[in-house]
Amino acid sequence: MNTRELSVLLVEDDAMVSGWVRLALEGSEMRLAGVAVSAAEALELAQRRHVDVLLVDYRLPDGRGTELVRELRRLGIAVPAVLMTANEERGFNEAAREAGAQGTVLKTGRADELLESLRRAHSGSETYDGRHPQRAPGRGALSPREREVLRLVADGSTNVEIATKLGVGGETVKTLLARTFAKLGVRRRAEAVAAAHERGLL
Amino acid sequence: MSARSERLAALDHELRTPLAAISGYAELLETREDEATRLEAARMIAASVERLRTTLDNLLAELAG
What we know:
The complex is a heterodimer of chains A (about 200) and B (about 60).
Chain A: E1 6-11, H1 15-25, E2 30-36, H2 39-48, E3 53-57, E4 59-60, E5 63-64, H3 65-74, E6 81-85, H4 92-99, E7 103-106, H5 111-122, H6 144-154, H7 159-166, H8 170-184, H9 189-198
Chain B: H1 3-31, H2 35-64
Helix pairs in contact in B: 1-2
């Protein structure tokens, strides 16, 4: 068994929670290597400092934890990441997996649950908290093409502009939008953009 | 996400975060022996309760609005 101390970078803006995490790790094989209070600070710290595992809050002051993990992966930072939330959220495990995280953990205040989740993520196992309800059927991951359309919608492009930019017909754009909206479980463009931001898809 | 469901999700988070903190610090009070940790846990429980009270006050004011 590997008894080397594991360093954990916590990304959490709530001092009440980070104080608890610090104490919960005490006495275990893990130590808190640092606390970032925003996604921006986490990006900077994660690039500068080697850590063994990341524990990332979902609701950060400057974005979602899923967006942060996606950005870290884009930068080639592959350190295992566990996303945490205070509430059970439908589809959260799927969103975390799509963003590139290895697991999720509910903030219940149980130190053993937190430690086990971090251990599993560090050992290379997936560790998704089963209390998050599964994403509703039909709301699968977006294809690259659907994400592209969504990005253009978020930029304020009209259907005609999207068709021109993608080099496709107006009907194809409508079909792509309908499929994207169905997967996100929304009916309007503004809702789609909000949902996409919420799930870290943009 | 509609404004209403966004507000509900935020409220859920605002209520559950201090609740989780109270559970977490209470567990530390039960399981840890060093005085400094126990004192910090007790203080944080009091702070979490205060935060819950504020959230509840704001919610009631909003509903009465």
